[in-house]
Design goal:
122 residues
Amino acid sequence: MLVARERSAYYPARVRVPDYKQRKQKDTVPQKHLQIKAKAIVLLVLVFMVMVLLIAQYCRFVALKLEIDQVEGQIARLQEEKSRLEVEVKKLSSLERIELIALEELGLQYPDEEQWLVITSR
């Protein structure tokens, strides 16, 4: 038996297909989110790399500062030792000390008038 159907069910209404621009916008929205996420990740990686470089430079600066402080301390110690040695040289090379050593330890004596030798030039 044949039954008549309604026209709308038998002939479906015109199916509305979204136009190309709307479809493109719908497709690109997730891509835009992915692009934004990728840019954010790249930016975070760059910021992280810059921070690591800054920290490395700071560590290098601190190490150099420590080395400079050590060298300055060594210079100060050497200058103190130099001044101490200069005082000792002056003390050991004094004429009074040399005379005392010559008279007492070496047994030398001042020359008599007879031991003097006068040389004249022509």
